[in-house]
Structure formats: C-alpha cells, structure tokens
Amino acid sequence: MSDLVIKEAWDILQGAYPALPRRKDLRAELTDANTAQERGYYLPDEDERLRERYLQYLGARASLWQMVRDLEPSLRKEDLRIFSLAFCAASMLMRSATFVISLAKERPIVWAKLDEAEPRYHIPRKTFTRIYRSLSSPGSMWRYQQAREFYEEHRTTIHHALTAGGMSEMIPWLEEEEPHFEPPKRSLLAGLLTYRLYSFNRRTNSGYLKVMFHLFRLGGSAIAEMKQPFAKPPGQGKRVSPEIRETVRTMLRPGDIFITRHDDAMSNLFLPGFWPHAALYLGSPKERQNLGVPHQGDDLITVLEAKKDGVKLRRLSETLAVDSFVVLRPRLNREELREALTRAMTHEGKLYDFVFDFRKAERLACTEVVYRSFHGIGPWQLELTKRSGHLALSAEDLMHQALDKDLLKVVLIYGVDGKALQIGETAAHTLNKTLNR
Q1: CA separation for the pair 350, 361 (Å, rounded)
Q2: What is the 3 state secondary structure string of the chain?
Q3: Domain locations in the chain?
Q4: Residues 333-357: pLDDT tens digits?
C-alpha cells in the first residue's frame, strides 16, 4: 500500500510542478501591479489576470498540501522517497509563495485585491493575509529549516533513493529549490525562543521522524486554511450513499458524463460555478467489448477520470464519493460513441493539468477528458474560453454549451434540493436552476 501512495503522490507532484509560478512567469502581473499601484486601483482586465494567476496558485497549493497530508499514515516508514516528496512539495510551495507575496508586500493595492472575496470561485475574504501570516510565522520558518538541514545532510543518499525508486526527475527540482530559502538568522532566533517544543521533539524522536513531524505540521496548517469550515458539520460524510450508487449504476450507459460536486472540496474551491468536476463513464468491460472499445481491469473499473493524481481508470464508488452529481448522456449513435470512447482510452495514464491549458494534450484536466473524447465527433463542437492566459473549458461552460446545442440529455441528478434522486425532465429543471438557466 505504501508504494501505491508514493506513486500517487509522485504523479501529483509531477502534475503540479509546472503550475506553480516562477518569478519570470509573473512579468505581466508585475507590470499590472505597478500600474495599478500608481493609479490607485485595478482595471477589470488587470483584475482578471491577477485573479486567474492567483487561482492557479491556490489550486496547485491545495492539492500539494493535501498530498503531503495523504502521506502522513506512512510517517513512521523511514523511507527517503516519502521525505523527498513532502520536502519537494513544501519547497516548491514556499518558493512560489514568496513570488506571489513579492507582488503584494510593497503594494497595498495588490494586497487588498488578493484579500477580496471572490464568490465566483468560493474564496472568502483575507485568504492572502492568512497565507502570508502562515508562511512568515517563526514556526513555519523553523519547521522548514529543519527539513532543509536534513536534506542537505543526506543529499547524496536521498538522490540515490530517488534514482532507485524511479523518481530521478525530482533531483534537479530539489536542486533548483536550494537557493530560494535561506531563512534570515534573526527570524530563526525568534523561532528558537518561541517554539521551545521543538527541543523536546529533538530529544524524543529520531532525526527522520522529527523532520517528518515538522513537514506534516507545516502542511497541516495550510490544509486548515484552505478548507471551507462551515460548508458542513465536522465528520459528516458524503451525501451520496452506497445505496444511491448501486441504484444509479443500473441506469448508466457507456459514454455518460458525470458532473460532480463536493460541498467542502479543497482543490475544487477555485473553479467557477456550482459544478466544478467532470468524469466519463466507460461502462463495464463487457459493455465496452460489445461496443468494440478497448477494455482492461476488473468489472468495477468503469470510469475514466482526471484527478490530481492523473487520468486514471477508477471505480464508480470513487467517482461518486461526492455530495451531488448529475448524469448527462451524449446524443450520439453507436459508431460515434465507439469512436469517442476509444479516443478517451488513449488518454489513460496522463498527468493532471493544473495549468488548465487545453491547447496541449500531454496533461489533462477533468473536463479536458470529456472535451478531447467528444469534440469533432458527430455534432459535437465546443468553444474554449481564455482563462489565466490559456484556453480551457470549465464543467459549467461544458454543460451550458452542450445543453444549448442539444448535444446532451439530462438523465438524472442527486444531492440538489434535498436527497431525492430526480430523473428526466425533473432532473433537467433542477440542473437548470443550478446553472441559472
């Protein structure tokens, strides 16, 4: 199980790496920031550029910190691959945060803009201030420094472990991060005085466990910041029960599209609209075989879905471990459906696209799996929208366009307006309300 967790974490890290901003990536935002500061306010187009870059950063940040937390059950396995994944993620996040902070620290107009609430993306007020305070605290700096010292002391052994584990690509990433975070000695001294607990940890834990404890504590505070604390009561599970999933399973057909929602999602917080996520139902291996579509895996592997760990074949129980979902059926004949699903299968195994750039096919976001599977087949023609300087298609954009062009039929919806499973026209009416149609 540990190796599977490590493989998933490595896939997430590879997907997130290009999405985190570097200083050279922020030239346009820096020009806008200087202009807005002199003017005293942001123009709408400048506002959108800053907002979209910030959203890209927040989405990658939330996924990487969650990745670190997912490694926590393996804390006591003294595996340098686990340390490297957690440390590399922390280094990338802290480095990219300093670049975002540099935009705002000396520019009150920029700081105020990043602290604004953004209902379109479910972002509350003061998000940027909380991130800044968390990363600049003596505790965070001290925790990170402990991990850095461990890395520097064991660099050669760590690089050998990564090479042996098939993760040699991480070595230059770690080396790239080395110059960025030499915490000021004055701040570290403050940390020593404030966080005496660490001396206790040094006496009671091994060097490896002490460092891993610090890394998980560093990530834990970030996780707390990004959750929606009032979205649902603590400990409450997902609304979609096993019974609902079994009922729905009998109503599905190959090619059906799931659009789903978590009430308290993290990485999905920064996507527009009520419905943020999409997945493609492939059908059972027998159904795919009857259609002439490539099939693999057991009878429970029925969905192709891009999540933070990449584009993978998944079980329905994983895809529908959500609070709300809608099932949409493409209006295609048998041959068109076979072509779409066969094309979809060619994307299995790709990394997740945290940048949401639909012009490139090497990494795919969730809606891009649907877009690349169906676009150009039969009547399917969808228009991309420019976001963060890239052309993309959100789940709600996909639904609006496909429903307007009569490319999709609403099959059912669950988790909206109570817990009743709604079918047909009733489901379509409920969905339209969520889309403000």
Answers
A1: 9
A2: CHHHHHHHHHHHHHHHHHHCCCHHHHHHHHHHHHHHHHHCCCCHHHHHHHHHHHHHHHHHHHHHHHHHHHCHHHCCCCCHHHHHHHHHHHHHHHHHHHHHHHHHCCCHHHHHHHCCCEHHHCECCCHHHHHHHHHHCHHHHHHHHHHHHHHHHCHHHHHHHHHHCCCCCHHHHHHHHHHHCCCCHHHHHHHHHHCCHHHHHHHHCCHHHHHHHHHHHHHHHHHHHHCCCCCCCCCCCCCCCHHHHHHHHCCCCCCCEEEEECCCCCHHHHCCCCCCEEEEECCCHHHHHHHCCCCCCCCCEEEEEEECCEEEEEEHHHHCCCCEEEEEEECCCHHHHHHHHHHHHCCCCCEECCCCCCCCCCEECHHHHHHHHHCCCCCCCCCCEEECCEEECCHHHHHHHHHHCCCEEEEEEECCCCCCCEEHHHHHHHHHHHCCC
A3: 2-226, 242-434
A4: 999 999 999 999 999 999 999 888 8
In whole angstroms, give the CA distance from residue 110 to residue 103. Answer: 7
Distance CA 431, CA 427 (A): 6
> Buried (b) or exposed (e) across 80-114, using 16+ Cβ within 10 A?
bbbbbbbbbbbbbbbbbbebbbebbeebebbbebb
pLDDT in the model for residue 206? 57
pTM value? 0.83
CB 373 within 8 A of CB 33: no
pLDDT in tens, 171-193: 999 998 877 655 544 444 444 44
Q: What topology does CATH give the domain 242-434?
A: endopeptidase fold (from Nostoc punctiforme) (3.90.1720)
- Which of 54-58, 114-118, 294-298, 392-396 comes out lowest in average pLDDT? 294-298
d(CA 68, CA 219): 6
Residue 401 has pLDDT above 80, yes or no: yes
Cβ neighbors of 313 (< 8 A, separation 6 or more) are 282, 296, 297, 301, 303, 304, 348
Of 184, 229, 225, whose CA–CA distance to 93 is shortest? 225
- In 3D, which of 182, 270, 216, 184 has the Cα closest to residue 90? 216
